[in-house]
Design brief:
This protein is α+β, with helices and mostly antiparallel strands. The protein is built from 3 helices and 4 strands; from the N terminus they run ββββααα. The chain has helices at residues 70-77, 97-109, 118-134, and strands at 4-7, 10-13, 46-49, 52-55. The strands form 2 sheets. Strands 1-2 form a two-stranded antiparallel ribbon. Strands 3-4 form a two-stranded antiparallel sheet. Strand 1 (4-7) and strand 2 (10-13) form a beta hairpin. The mean pLDDT is 80.
């Protein structure tokens, strides 16, 4: 849920797009465990995974120590910390109290002032599409 999709020129964490219809936090049918594979490049990039534009791993200092293959990673690449990567595009989300307050203010202002809210716009488009698919 923390990995981001690249939509309208920004990175939006998937958790912000959950709509309960077409995007739900669930395991695929018949699956009990999900195994994650992080793709770490020399720079933060957007790649296609199953046709969706997603971000590669955004390394920030030594956070690779949480990798399950941490020992193998250090053996291959050394134990010197790699520099933190610069995000491919702006990361936008409603994470945290200040971000939620900003989102509420944008929502309140939107009938009067044209305000760009990339998370809200993407969510609305995906929710509309989900409604059309259900009908």
């Amino acid at each position: 849920p923390e990995h981001a999709l690249f939509i309208d020129g920004v990175l939006i964490p998937v958790r912000e797009l959950v709509n309960g219809i077409s995007i739900v936090p669930a395991l695929p049918e018949g699956t009990e465990v999900i195994e994650y594979f992080q793709i770490l490049l020399d720079s933060h990039e957007v790649i296609l995974a199953e046709g969706a534009p997603i971000e590669t791993y955004l390394l920030r200092g030594r956070d690779y120590e949480s990798f399950t293959n941490f020992i193998e990673y250090e053996r291959l690449y050394g134990h010197e910390p790699r520099p933190a990567l610069t995000p491919f595009a702006p990361l936008v989300s409603y994470n945290g109290g200040r971000a939620h307050l900003k989102a509420l203010l944008l929502l309140g202002m939107s009938p009067f002032v044209q305000v760009r809210d990339p998370v809200g716009s993407a969510y609305e488009r995906l929710a509309t599409r989900a409604d059309e698919l259900v009908r």
